[in-house]
Specification:
alpha/beta, 7 helices, disordered C terminus, 3-stranded parallel sheet
């Protein structure tokens, strides 16, 4: 049986798609790669490389990549995989706000230099909650990270998009349920919600 949320999402998507298709504008197709030549060869409109890969490049490698992108007709509209370094954590006992801030500042500056307007934070490894770690503290750490990321994104005229990940892949895993008084209540996934 289909739930109300899925039904309403389908109705909304149908409306938006029909409105988009009725316009004369071309739908652009991008590819998650930094291979500009093959993206052009196969007719893609833009590339979406990994932000962590771009941040990891040496100054010389980044300069060469930047020059190649900016000299071509291919554009870099967004970047995915904002945090992929195993030593960078947003949640847990080993979080270093200063290291995260320094990394994000360089990474987002490079993203903007390539012409991107969005950097996507999926990066399950950076936001997974370690076993036994208090969920309330994890929520505080994520909120602190998002405030910092938002400030740095604003500085570089970018948006940080939060990618929803599959259950079991991310934190927090919560569902909403009625609390009996009509107000929704957040509960941990796996807890009985009826």
């Amino acid at each position: 049986m289909i739930c109300r949320r899925t039904f309403l999402a389908g109705v909304a998507a149908s409306f938006l798609c029909s409105a988009a298709w009725s316009q004369d504008e071309k739908v652009e197709i991008g590819v998650c790669t930094r291979d500009v030549d093959n993206a052009l060869k196969y007719g893609f409109d833009y590339i979406e490389p990994g932000a962590a890969d771009i941040a990891h490049m040496s100054e010389e490698d980044f300069r060469q990549f930047r020059d190649k992108v900016l000299a071509s007709s291919m554009r870099c509209r967004s970047l995915n995989g904002l945090i992929r370094r195993p030593d960078l954590k947003v949640v847990g006992n080993s979080v270093s706000t200063s290291v995260l801030s320094e990394y994000l500042d360089v990474c987002l500056e490079r993203c903007r230099t390539l012409g991107a307007s969005v950097a996507v934070w999926g990066s399950a490894g950076s936001r997974n909650v370690p076993d036994g770690f208090p969920r309330e503290r994890a929520q505080e750490q994520i909120a602190q990270f998002l405030r910092m990321a938002g400030d740095l994104a604003r500085k570089h005229d970018l948006v940080v998009a939060i990618e929803p990940l599959a259950r079991g892949e991310q934190y927090p895993e919560y569902r909403w349920r009625g609390a009996g008084d009509g107000a929704p209540r957040r509960t941990s996934a796996g807890e009985d919600d009826h």
